[in-house]
Amino acid sequence: MSRYICFDVETPNYKNERMSAIGICAVEDGMIAEEFYSLVNPEQGFDLFNIRLTGITPEQAAKAPTFGELWGKIAPLMKSGLPVAHNAQFDMSVVSKCLHAYGLPYGEITRYACTCRIGKRLLPGLPNHRLDTICRELGFGLNHHNAGSDARACAEILRYYISKGANIEDYARFYSLSEIRTLRSAPK
């Protein structure tokens, strides 16, 4: 695999079943090939905690497309390589729940990779493996909890791992989108 689709989502409330923003950054042959960012109208209420965390207000999101409207535009990009996220279980879950809520197809099971999980193996000496910690350690810029910036940071971290010889395929796992659960596969 030489194309990876790094992505990040932000959510409007504690339910974590809809998104208020999505950022996507494609890495192809070790280079940033494409980037996308959009606010998303979650068609749900916002919690004050999430507004403070992401800076996204209900008024801003109300002007944005819904996930159902946006999916036709981003589906080809999301399906064009191995999905990768930092703390991917969370992001995969939100996407899965959005697909389910809007009755949109994706596929029964998809493979994905997690830069947090990879970092635990490749950077074991860090105090934690949060996105901001790894970015600080590696000197990457980050506007944390901005989905575009987080997706770009995930891509930069992935590129760093690749440059150090990591075979990302060794870290791929399987996610069942229809059942909203993870099927684990051992690294090769």
Description:
- The protein has a single domain (3-183), classed as 2-Layer Sandwich (Nucleotidyltransferase, domain 5), CATH 3.30.420.
- It is α/β, with parallel strands linked by helices.
- Helices cover 38% and strands 22% of the residues.
- β6 and β7 (181-183) form a beta hairpin.
- Residues 180-188 have low confidence and may be disordered.
List the helices and strands and how they pair.
Elements: E1 3-10, E2 21-28, E3 31-39, H1 48-54, H2 58-62, H3 67-78, E4 82-85, H4 88-101, E5 109-114, H5 115-122, H6 131-138, H7 147-163, E6 173-176, E7 181-183
Parallel strand pairs: 1-4, 4-5
Antiparallel strand pairs: 1-2, 2-3, 5-6, 6-7
Helix pairs in contact: 5-7, 6-7
Total count of domains: 1
Strand content: 15-25%
Envelope shape:
globular
Number of H/I helices: 7
Structural class: alpha/beta
Query: What is the CATH homologous superfamily assignment?
Result: Ribonuclease H-like superfamily/Ribonuclease H
Largest sheet features: 7 strands, mixed
Question: Based on DSSP secondary structure assignment, what is the total number of beta strands?
Answer: 7
Give average pLDDT, whole number.
92
In CATH, the topology is named Nucleotidyltransferase, domain 5
* Corresponding CATH architecture: 2-Layer Sandwich
Q: Helix and strand string, N-terminal first? A: EEEHHHEHEHHHEE
What would CATH call the class?
Alpha Beta
Q: Kindly report the spatial arrangement of strands forming the biggest sheet.
A: 3-2-1-4-5-6-7
Kindly, what is the distance between the CA atoms of the first and last residues, rounded to a whole number of angstroms? Answer: 15 Å
- Identify low-pLDDT runs: 180-188
Helicity, as a percent range: 25-40%
Radius of gyration: 16 Å
